[in-house]
Amino acid sequence: MTARNKKLTVADVARAAKVSKATAARVLGGYGVTSERTREAVLQAAQDLGYRPNELARSVSTGRSGLIGVVVGDIENAFFARAVRGISDTARAAGLNVIISNSGEDLAQERALVSVLLRQQVQGLIVAPTDDGDVAHLAEAMASGTPVVTIDRWVEGLGADGICGDDRAATAALVAQMQALGHRRIAYVTAIRTPQPRLQSLAQVRIAAVRERIAGFLSAAPAGQDWHERVHTNATGAAAIDAIVARLLSETPGVTAILASDSLVGAEVFRALSARGIALPAQMSLVAWFDADWSRVTVPAVTVVDQPTHRFGALAAERIIARIGGETGPARHQRIETPLIRRGSLGPAPGD
Fold first, then answer.
1. Which stretches make up the HTH lacI-type domain (predicted)?
2. What is the second-level CATH architecture of the domain 10-62?
């Protein structure tokens, strides 16, 4: 059997370079001290043989895998896709690689993925927690020496750095602008799952960012009014959102504006309104969270709350790289401004 059709080892490289196995391992692993002549001989031998290092074995021996583990809620959501790009771009510039995982906003899946990533010897974790009330798996990772940064969702008491938008203030300011345009009956549509079709309590919302947005929406209600019944839940697909739009139009007369909790929900609400011939903004105004590509090419273009998600990802990567590098100190919470981008779908309330 020749060197080209068997699995090559450090010992093979050492023999070809005429050095000890320990010396070859130091050069190939990037640790320890060797002369420049020896280093060149080992690297040339590795190249001639076609040797490729076993990254997992090397991470075990050096304690440095060069990997960052990322767990997001829904990789199909453009918000997370852009955030992951920000993470990857920043990690690559620092000489690190990224393993991306999708939890599907399922807590059990998130726990399993974190466990897998830790077994892969990742040096740090960036996670969008599914439930900020159940983060024991993240606390355990930190206790074992793996730093954690949360993205889009701040977890109080975890002690991890976090990057998120100023969701509550942004939503309250948005609703105030809508009220200034004469909108008095505004519906909020969200993908969170609840037993009832409408929100009963903020305690039902386990994702911090979503809870902050809904809290901002509720805080804008005029004195003496309860807007919980205006929060329509379970918007988890085209059919569900179409049914929600049909229900709110028939059961909530006088609704003049809809606020969609994310870009996926916003796209389906737009489709459902268009299918019913409802003109935006003459008959209904629509605003969605996140400046997704689709929102700029519809007629009319859709007003959005902008979330600079590539920056979210880049900042999260910077924080995890700093922690991997040994930075200590209290957890840092960075809130990023999320301004309104006014487009054609938001206008004065009909008849106002």
1. 8-62
2. Orthogonal Bundle (1.10)
User: What's the pTM value of the predicted model, to 2 decimals?
Assistant: 0.79
Three-class secondary structure assignment of the chain: CCHHHCCCCHHHHHHHHCCCHHHHHHHHHCCCCCCHHHHHHHHHHHHHHCCCCCHHHHHHHHCCCCEEEEEECCCCCHHHHHHHHHHHHHHHHCCCEEEEEECCCCHHHHHHHHHHHHHCCCCEEEECCCCCCCCHHHHHHHHCCCCEEEECCCCCCCCCEEEEECHHHHHHHHHHHHHHCCCCCEEEECCCCCCCCECCCHHHCCCHHHHHHHHHHHHCCCCCCCCHHHEECCCCCHHHHHHHHHHHHHHCCCCCEEEECCHHHHHHHHHHHHHCCCCCCCCCEEEEECCCCHHHHCCCCCEEECCCHHHHHHHHHHHHHHHHCCCCCCCCEEEECCCEECCCCCCCCCCC
pLDDT above 70 coverage of the chain, percent: 94
Residue 268 has pLDDT above 80, yes or no: yes
pLDDT digits (tens, 9 = 90+) for 302-344: 999 999 999 999 999 999 999 999 999 999 999 999 999 999 9
CATH number of 166-307: 3.40.50.2300
Domains in the chain: boundaries: 10-62, 67-164+309-336, 166-307
Domain 67-164+309-336 part of CATH 3.40.50.2300 = yes
Q: Mind listing the pLDDT tens digit for each residue in 49-68?
A: 888 766 555 554 545 678 99
pLDDT band at 2 (very low <50, low <70, confident <90, very high): very low
Mean pLDDT of 273-292: 96
% of residues, the chain, pLDDT over 90: 74
